[in-house]
């Protein structure tokens, strides 16, 4: 119980999971992170994600945001049925306040399988938009390779999560289609330095992530990411060189009967006077679009000792996040689509007029409501 109100985020060494003599310790540490924290740092992932590729990607990021505004707007998200593309600074609100960030939503490669008669939510997956190759040569290939390597790390990590929850390694495979039929969504994000006059330090407000797990690259040395512990205190998760931050989302929490924690988190803008923006690259590792996590078809049986750990942990005293409770009843794809419609009403107005009317009967708001 002393671990209940964590005051720092555990660091796990991925290479320990790859050797039979050290794997059991890794699984024990992962179990603690899943049940009590909901966040972890992961080091030594070079066998899955090329370290040089990460450095190359980091070098591209400031150049990507420095592209002329009109070039960024050419690939704006409103062009895309799949909610993939560029969003200007301040396009979204979280908990009623503007998020001070600018971003490119770019996903792993995927050809939409939607056909007439299929549910709308099949269209949340599809091809990405990239800036003109001549303006940022090589970025597209770097990003594609990066996303596919990180997605593969996520696919392996899911088997470790299953083991940490007392299931066989393939215990969570029912939530997935084959890897070639899945799409995982990445973003490249810039949090600008606020001006002296700024009233807000909100990079992104408190929220949960949606799916099973998020794999985050903190791509600049700025602190700012904070994680809410069981008593509601905000704990810093500053960048640690050579690591990813991994956190668990609402779908995993629902699918595991609350054993795994989706943990509320937020990002503070860089302090006024900082010399450069903060950059990050999250990858949201998805489950299959048709899955209803609470349907009996997907119900998982956990060993009593794992359920006991959940019960000993207890429930949250307080959280500042509210989003994605739709997993209780909706298919995963519908939860994603509803989240996207709320965050990006301009895209919805263009491509999903019926849903747009349902969520925004008064017409187009100035900003989206991210969470
Ligand atoms: O930028 C970060 O470090 C985290 C961003 C985040 O939590 C999100 O976009 O869901
Ligand atoms: Fe998040």
UniProtKB/TrEMBL annotation:
<protein>
    <recommendedName>
        <fullName>Fe2OG dioxygenase domain-containing protein</fullName>
    </recommendedName>
</protein>
<keyword id="KW-0479">Metal-binding</keyword>
<dbReference type="Pfam" id="PF03171">
    <property type="entry name" value="2OG-FeII_Oxy"/>
</dbReference>
<comment type="similarity">
    <text>Belongs to the iron/ascorbate-dependent oxidoreductase family.</text>
</comment>
<dbReference type="InterPro" id="IPR005123">
    <property type="entry name" value="Oxoglu/Fe-dep_dioxygenase_dom"/>
</dbReference>
<dbReference type="InterPro" id="IPR044861">
    <property type="entry name" value="IPNS-like_FE2OG_OXY"/>
</dbReference>
<feature type="domain" description="Fe2OG dioxygenase">
    <location>
        <begin position="178"/>
        <end position="287"/>
    </location>
</feature>
<keyword id="KW-0560">Oxidoreductase</keyword>
<keyword id="KW-0408">Iron</keyword>
<dbReference type="Pfam" id="PF14226">
    <property type="entry name" value="DIOX_N"/>
</dbReference>
<dbReference type="InterPro" id="IPR027443">
    <property type="entry name" value="IPNS-like_sf"/>
</dbReference>
<dbReference type="InterPro" id="IPR026992">
    <property type="entry name" value="DIOX_N"/>
</dbReference>
